[in-house]
Design brief:
This protein is an all-alpha fold and 284 residues long. It is built from 11 helices and 2 strands.
């Protein structure tokens, strides 16, 4: 009798049963929260973004750059949760204003925290903090901003659908017709044909989504889907470059079978601000 390997799916490169279990375990509460309890959905997003900030902090440490991770994580969670509350409770400040204040306070706290370690490497470390703040909470606060808008849950649902459609379309078209590499030194599997297919599928999903769910002209969804696809692709490439520069395969092992939080959020993190902007300009 042959001895089984520890990984039941070695050809997949990951433990597939564990990956599926973790995926379902994330999908169910996020979906249920978005539909029935948006406060819980926002809480999960806030926690996830806090962990993502830790992941990027660890990646930067491998390059000799030390961000002030504690105030950044606190600022990330407070800005996301506070932005959600400000959109529903009269705090005499808009959700956008609250988020801006939180992000500025987070940067100030990071600067102050770094003062106590002296001048050596100050510019390098402050640059690391500024990068993490701009990359994680600045992008992440657009989740509560989307929720705060009219039909906010439907807006988020459409943006998520556009990103998923983009990934699916890019993969399918790339496998079938991909010939020309898009960024071989960053992500060898991406092709221009796959990128075009992702944009087309996302645009179609966006057009149908805004028309059916938001009673908005189809061409708005066409623009939304195309730009969300572009934003998601940029997000994926940026995260791939961070990992390559830091010499990492995955950002962390926070999600068994999947890698890190950022390995799952990279596309969505950039697409959400893009989706917010398009829908804000179109619908207010």
């Amino acid at each position: 009798m042959t001895r089984q390997t520890a990984n039941p799916t070695p050809k997949a490169g990951r433990n597939l049963p564990v990956a599926i279990g973790v995926g379902v375990g994330l999908f169910v509460p996020l979906t249920a929260g978005l539909i029935w309890a948006p406060w819980f959905f926002t809480l999960l997003i806030a926690v996830g973004l806090g962990l993502a900030a830790v992941e990027v902090h660890r990646a930067l440490l491998l390059k000799g750059m030390r961000s002030e991770v504690v105030p950044i994580v606190i600022g990330t969670v407070v800005s996301v949760l506070g932005g959600y509350i400000a959109g529903r409770v009269d705090l005499h400040i808009s959700a956008v204003g609250f988020a801006a204040i939180c992000l500025a306070a987070t940067m100030l706290a990071a600067l102050t925290s770094r003062l106590f370690r002296g001048a050596e490497g100050f510019i390098r470390d402050v640059s690391a903090s500024a990068f993490v703040i701009a990359y994680i909470p600045l992008m992440g606060v657009f989740v509560p901003l989307l929720l705060a808008a009219d039909h906010g849950r439907l807006r988020i649902l459409i943006v998520i659908a556009c990103v998923v459609a983009s990934d699916t379309g890019a993969f399918a078209v790339g496998v079938l017709f991909g010939r020309h590499k898009m960024a071989p030194s960053i992500s060898p599997g991406k092709t221009w044909e796959g990128f075009a297919g992702g944009v087309a599928v996302a645009a179609a999903v966006g057009a149908v989504g805004v028309h059916l769910l938001l009673d908005t002209p189809w061409w708005v969804g066409l623009i939304l889907g195309a730009l969300c696809s572009l934003g998601g692709t940029v997000g994926d490439l940026v995260e791939s470059l961070i990992k390559r520069d830091a010499g990492l395969k995955d950002m962390s092992n926070f999600l068994p079978g999947h890698g890190g939080i950022m390995d799952r959020l990279d596309s969505m993190l950039v697409a959400v601000p893009v989706g917010w902007l398009v829908l804000h300009l179109a619908l207010g």
